[in-house]
Amino acid sequence: MAKQKSEWFDWIKALLIAFALAFIVRTFFFAPIVVDGPSMMPTLHDRDQMIVNKFLYDIDEPKRFDIVVFHASDQKDFIKRIIGLPGEHVAVDDDVLYINGEEVKEPFLTAQKQNRMSTNSLTSEFKLEELPGEYKQIPEDHVLVLGDNRNNSTDSRMLGLIPMDQIVGKTSLIYWPFDRMQTISK
Questions:
Q1: CA distances (Å), 118 to each of 80, 95, 115, in order?
Q2: pTM, to two decimals
Q3: Is residue 186 scored above 70 in pLDDT?
Q4: Is 80 considered catalytic here?
Q5: For residue range 82-113, what is the model confidence (pLDDT) as tens digits?
Q6: Of 80, 153, 156, 170, which one is the catalytic site residue?
Q7: Does some domain include residue 45?
Q8: Catalytic residue among 3, 6, 39, 172, which?
Q9: Range of the domain at 40
Q10: Looking at the domain assignment, is residue 140 inside a domain?
Q11: Is 127 noted as a catalytic residue in this protein?
Q12: What is the pLDDT of residue 36?
């Protein structure tokens, strides 16, 4: 009887430790997210399930073209791509991205640009000064984000610049559905 109680106690202890570890990992390191909507098409599809690395930006700086999850409101997280970094000026003219006046290629948009109707622009023209906040350059601890589906994305063009403390983390791994399982690179 004592052996049976000891066995139960060991099982309960193991389960409590497992739940505690799962809670710590999910709270501080990694979390699942489900893509909601078409704003990141064709890179990400509606209902793709991904893993968010929540601690990366505690040890490293964000990089241009990272795909990030951020708090758009108290109830809603968005997933977008970092386009502009602190200290930079961003503009789009005739579907060309300019960072500090220099043209920057966006390889993830190549297919979309080739398949669009010649009269339709993929990204409406804008300058950083025209966005909410009217900044001349992106301030420290902020980034400019855009969705890959530029004509159907609520991003920095409407929301303004995103403070770094609103970023949940970086995501690059699609784990569901299985036929779309992949690591997203730029």
A1: 25, 11, 9
A2: 0.84
A3: no
A4: yes
A5: 999 999 999 999 889 999 999 999 988 877 77
A6: 80
A7: yes
A8: 39
A9: 32-183
A10: yes
A11: no
A12: 92
